[in-house]
Design a protein that fits this description.
Elements (H helix, E strand, L loop, with lengths): L2 H29 L25 E5 L3 H11 L5 H16 L6 H5 L3 E11 L13 E8 L2 H18 L2 E8 L2 E8 L14 E7 L3 E5 L2 H12 L9 H9 L6 E6 H9 L14 E9 L2 E9 L28 E6 L1 H12 L3 H18 L3 H4 L7 E7 L8 E7 L6 H14 L3 E7 L2 E15 L5 E16 L2 E5 L2 H7 L11 H7 L8 E6 H11 L2 H8 L1 H4 L2 E12 L2 E10 L6
Antiparallel strand pairs: 1-2, 1-8, 2-3, 3-7, 4-5, 5-6, 6-7, 8-9, 9-10, 10-20, 11-12, 11-18, 12-13, 13-17, 14-15, 15-16, 16-17, 18-19, 19-20
Helix pairs in contact: 1-2, 1-3
């Protein structure tokens, strides 16, 4: 098994274990009224002392894997326990494939309550003559250091018996490093030596370390002894860590520009090309209905800036969003939001690619400039939704905007009608219930064969968009059917539906708006529009198998740290 593949698998496995933890804890507490859900513990990754400040990624599981399995088996129905065991076996096998290691025999006796994976460097050897060589580090706490040493000795002795690799024992700063390297072939003295790989060490009675190169492990030990080098002593890390004070079962810390470069295999960013504070911390905790992720983003706002949440309840624009919507976004002052996003985008190529392409696609299709023609006048409430259509693949969309006095709302809406005419569309008024709506239509001619074999031409009006005023709101939709759904009233709205109320219940009441995704309704669309979701689904399979909905909300800025929460609502154990 290639070492890079091993570390990819281990990283994926760590993420998967987090979601197994969520599912397991959720099932347990939803079944037993005697258990008090606490979400986890207020602990921090102790292995941060080995991780350098500039590391692209650190992710930690803060619970022993055996506890996860015990919870999962305890709450599973008798007929589902075999499946539950199979899922856990699959994770173990993916991590240990081709290593001749058995988890229960070799690892379970000594593994502790923390598993931390880190990408420590995008190129640990800094050799421009070869490709970038990322450094990978895994730090595992141990409850029995002697058994951990015995495991490593047994593992390496099996490799030595095979006769294909040399074992190297190195003393470095009081710690014994062990690694293997292929035996050089006879007569191969003139060949470029194969670099040693698969390095491990037991540090004191607390940690077992693994790395993909001795240099990575040496650097990790250097980080411990030089306080100004490791993540634990980084002021920005401590700032976001202290802002995440809820109980948790997992924690991640990400350097956004460096991580983007690692994932996309792009050139390594220099300190001059990005702010060192472009980081996000994520704390995973437990909720009676699922998994809650609290995030702290540092670097997108000035360090001295603080801003209170703008809302204390869902915006009234949501009353025009149907309960059957698969995706809904709602908030206030779309113009300000876009300006902040544009400022944060700056010279960030990754964020630019995420924003510019879809914006350019919409502007090209509609013949408008979104920032000037729409965003600029939406300074009050707004809501956007996608409504599934059973008769076609693409959903309908609904956009609701509050018309605030003193803005150019009315003039901008008239401008949109003018743009529609410039694109060859007809604009006209139509009755819909007790409302008069404006429709943008395209006249098309179609032919049909009559009973007398005559070729009959028919004129057909294809609706491209509809809008109408309702009180101080303007409602835009992609079809007459969607407009009819939007105008059916508050009782049929998303904001009144129990599924939406349950999805936003764990989020702060004081916030800046919501993003809501009904996974059952929107799964196909999301995967089609964002293929990377399918990759994430493979990694986090235990989560997606039980996912009901996803809701996201931000809730203010505190000294430059922007806070948000994501709630993954899961199906409980009694549901099929």
């Amino acid at each position: 098994m290639k070492l890079r593949s091993f570390f990819y698998a281990l990283a994926a496995g760590t993420v998967a274990l987090l979601f197994v933890a969520a599912v397991g804890f959720f099932w347990l507490t939803s079944q037993s009224p005697l258990n008090i859900l606490r979400g986890g513990t207020v602990t921090t990754p102790t292995a941060a002392i080995f991780v350098p400040k500039q590391a692209p990624l650190m992710a930690s599981l803060l619970v022993n894997p055996d506890r996860l399995e015990a919870f999962r088996q305890l709450v599973a129905r008798p007929e589902n326990r075999r499946r539950s065991r199979a899922e856990l076996n699959q994770i173990e096998e993916s991590l240990l494939a081709n290593t001749d290691i058995n988890y229960r025999r070799d690892i379970q006796p000594w593994i502790g309550d923390e598993i931390t994976f880190a990408v420590t460097s995008l190129d640990f050897d800094r050799n421009q003559e070869n490709a970038a060589q990322p450094g990978y580090l895994v730090a595992v706490t141990t409850k029995d250091a002697q058994k951990a040493r015995e495991f490593l000795q047994l593992f390496y002795s099996k490799q030595a018996i095979a006769g294909t690799e040399d074992l190297v024992f190195e003393q470095y700063k009081g710690v014994n490093l062990t690694y293997k390297r292929p035996i050089a072939p006879i007569g191969g003295s003139n060949q470029t030596p194969t670099p040693p790989v698969w390095t491990s060490a037991v540090v004191g009675d607390r940690f077992v370390l693994f790395a993909n190169h001795p240099k990575v492990l040496r650097n990790a030990l250097n980080n411990v002894q030089a306080a100004n080098l490791n993540l634990e002593d980084d002021p920005e890390y401590q700032q976001v860590l202290q802002s995440l004070n809820e109980p948790r079962i997992g924690f991640s810390f990400v350097n956004l520009p460096a991580l983007a470069a690692w994932i996309s295999n792009q050139p390594i960013p220099t300190q001059e090309s990005f702010q060192a504070s472009d980081t996000v911390a994520i704390a995973l905790s437990l909720n009676r209905q699922g998994l809650l992720a609290q995030t702290a983003l540092l670097g997108s706002q000035p360090s001295e800036e603080s801003q209170s949440p703008t809302l204390s309840k869902p915006v009234e624009a949501l009353q025009y969003i149907p309960a059957e919507s698969s995706l809904a976004i709602a908030g206030t002052d779309l113009n300000q939001f876009w300006n902040r996003l544009s400022t944060a985008r700056g010279d960030d190529d990754t964020l630019k690619s995420l924003l510019d392409q879809p914006i350019a696609s919409l502007q090209s299709r509609w013949g408008i400039q979104l920032p000037e023609d729409i965003f600029s006048w939406v300074q009050g409430e707004y809501a956007l939704s996608l409504l599934p259509r059973p008769d076609r693949d693409n959903p309908d969309w609904i956009f609701v905007a509050q018309k605030v006095p003193g803005t150019t709302a009315e003039e901008s809406i008239e401008h949109l009608d003018a743009v529609a005419k410039q694109q060859g569309l007809s604009t006209g008024s139509l009755p819909l219930g007790d409302k008069i709506i404006t429709a943008w239509t395209k006249l098309l001619t179609t032919s049909a064969i009559t009973e007398k074999d005559d070729n009959l031409l028919k004129l057909e009006a294809q609706v491209r968009g509809v809008h109408t005023a309702v009180g101080n709101y303007e409602v835009f939709t992609s079809s007459i059917e969607a407009m009819d759904e939007a105008l059916q009233g508050l009782e049929n709205s998303l904001v009144k539906s129990d599924k939406f109320k349950n999805a936003i219940a764990p989020l702060p009441e004081q916030n800046d708006g919501y993003l809501y995704l009904d996974w059952a309704q929107g799964e196909t669309l999301i995967k089609r529009q964002l293929p990377i979701v399918q990759v994430v689904e493979l990694v986090a399979k235990p989560l997606f198998e039980h996912l009901r909905s996803l809701s996201i909300s931000s809730y203010g800025i505190d000294n430059g740290v922007q806070h948000s929460k994501l709630f993954f609502q899961l199906h409980n154990a009694n549901e099929s």
